[in-house]
Design brief:
Elements: E1 3-7, H1 11-23, E2 27-31, H2 34-43, E3 48-52, E4 54-55, E5 58-59, H3 60-70, E6 75-80, H4 85-93, E7 98-101, H5 106-119, H6 140-152, E8 159-163, H7 169-177, E9 187-191, H8 200-205, E10 206-207, E11 219-220, H9 222-225, E12 230-234, H10 241-253, E13 255-256, E14 265-266, E15 270-275, H11 279-284, H12 290-296, E16 299-303, H13 313-328, E17 334-335, H14 337-345, H15 351-365, E18 370-371, H16 378-392, H17 405-418, H18 423-430, H19 434-443
Parallel strand pairs: 1-2, 1-3, 3-6, 6-7, 8-15, 8-16, 9-12, 12-15, 17-18
Antiparallel strand pairs: 4-5, 10-11, 13-14
Length: about 450
């Protein structure tokens, strides 16, 4: 049964529509304001939202953004008494699936609902612990990647996702899972780099009570949690060599052996692994087992960093603005043109995770409905300033080259001061590694011994 939410402050219209839709086999809920509608959207999933263009506490365009964020796969029909082309164009461009004009014709509404629901693919990503579907972007690099993901999803092949920290590897893993035959079964994620080495066996395979100090109760591991579904092992290269041996045996035999338990349990799990390091290089350095690498490397995917898909940055930023609005109860509609220029030109070493955090901070600090330059962190504004300085000195790439000793010295000192002498951040802004920066400071007699690199003491 399809579920419809009616949002209109006219109680009479809501009652008529509720009866009409219920009589035609729809499950219906109503809301008389934007605030009550958002609460329902947070708590429930809807196939269609039928929303009035003018509400006492919002309007159709703002509500459209909220609906698309809270329930990304829902179809949205806007009800308007203003049958003018300009509003209709704005609504469709904003993501509405259709609109209908008052006074409503009941037969027309029923036909429209059937048409939209028939065309619905129903393959959107389900929510994960309250998190919503993730926007992947429209750049050629991402489109090609998603085509590969669509191809491998229906299979049971193990996948390795290679990409920098914060680039969205877990979201891609979820994309694959929810388009697979296992989508009705669990998706379980484990950050292998975040668990202590002494507990890795227990986290992966489980344990029985009393098997080691602190094992006060039986515990199942992530393999059993993910049985029938997908297990995402993030930063798999951080696993201890001994744990890698047991992991390989588990994958080969499709049986799990809990710590301290002589019995084995059959498991059926698809593995998606991820690493921010090249696993083949770790194999060459004898830090990762070659046989395990070949066992999980049935299909390799590379997720490019944000700086290599700059065409997506504006869309990501807009997506994160809507996310932050919902989390912080704000109503920011966009950003000033100079802010967007800064966002596009920044190198984003932390990738999407860094962009998301910057946008959330900026939305929180915004005093109006637009994000201004004042709300951006200094590393972004100073990065732009140094890019301009580099260009004026013939440094189009932003790298430290020999221009003049004095100019180079001023550039380094200015960069360090802009980031409170954090040498790691300064090196990223100047597009050099820390060792190069230290050497340059020594060559140019830059003495900052009285200050401390905050990255080294925190």
């Amino acid at each position: 049964m399809s579920k419809v939410l009616i949002v209109d402050d006219d109680v009479f219209i809501c009652n008529i529509l509720e009866k009409l839709l219920a009589d035609n086999g729809y499950e219906v809920e109503t809301a008389y304001s934007a605030a009550s509608a958002k609460k329902l959207l947070k708590d429930s999933s809807f196939d269609v939202v039928l929303c009035d263009y003018r509400l006492p506490d919002s309007d159709g365009l703002k509500m459209l953004n909220s609906i698309k964020w809270l329930v990304p796969g829902a179809k949205v029909i806007i009800i308007t008494a203003y049958a003018d082309v300009s509003i209709a164009v704005k609504l469709i461009k904003g993501g509405a699936d259709d609109y209908i004009v008052k006074p409503l014709r009941q037969d027309e509404l029923l036909v429209l609902l059937r048409k939209l629901l028939q065309n619905s693919s129903g393959d959107r990503l389900p929510r994960k612990n309250g998190e919503e579907e993730f926007f992947f972007g429209e750049s050629p690099e991402i489109k090609q990647l998603l085509q590969l993901a669509e191809t491998v999803s229906p299979t049971d092949m193990s996948v390795i996702i290679d990409g920098e920290t914060g680039s969205g590897k877990e979201y891609l893993a979820r994309f694959i899972h929810y388009r697979s035959k296992r989508r009705e079964r669990p998706f379980v994620a484990l950050d292998c780099g975040a668990i202590p080495k002494s507990l890795a066996n227990s986290e992966l395979f489980g344990h029985i009570k009393g098997s080691f100090t602190g094992a006060v109760a039986d515990k199942i591991g992530v393999f059993q949690e993910a049985d029938g579904g997908t297990l995402f092992l993030d930063e798999i290269g951080n696993l201890d060599y001994e744990v890698q041996v047991k992991l390989l045996r588990t994958l080969q035999e499709r049986k799990v052996n809990r710590v301290g338990d002589p019995k084995t349990t059959n498991i059926d799990v698809r593995i998606i692994a991820a690493s921010n390091e090249d696993l083949s290089h770790l194999v060459e350095e004898n830090k990762f087992r070659e046989d395990l690498y070949h066992r999980i490397n049935e299909f390799m995917m590379h997720l490019p960093p944000l700086r290599e898909r700059r065409k997506d940055i504006q869309q990501y930023a807009e997506f994160f603005i809507q996310e932050a609005n919902m989390q912080l109860d704000k109503d920011v509609t966009g950003m000033d043109a100079d802010v967007m220029d800064l966002i596009r030109s920044y190198s984003w070493p932390g990738n999407l995770r860094e962009l998301r955090n910057v946008i959330k901070r900026s939305v929180l600090l915004s005093q109006s409905d637009r994000i201004t330059k004042d709300s951006l962190p200094r590393e972004i504004t100073s990065f732009h300033l140094h890019e301009e300085m580099n260009q004026s000195m013939g440094e189009s790439s932003g790298e430290l080259r020999e221009v003049s000793r004095d100019a180079e010295r001023k550039l380094i000192i200015g960069t360090l001061q802009s980031v409170d002498n954090n040498k790691s951040k300064a090196a990223r802004i100047l597009n050099v590694d820390r060792k190069t920066l230290y050497n340059k400071m020594k060559q140019l007699n830059i003495d900052l011994q009285s200050t401390t690199d905050s990255s080294e003491v925190r």
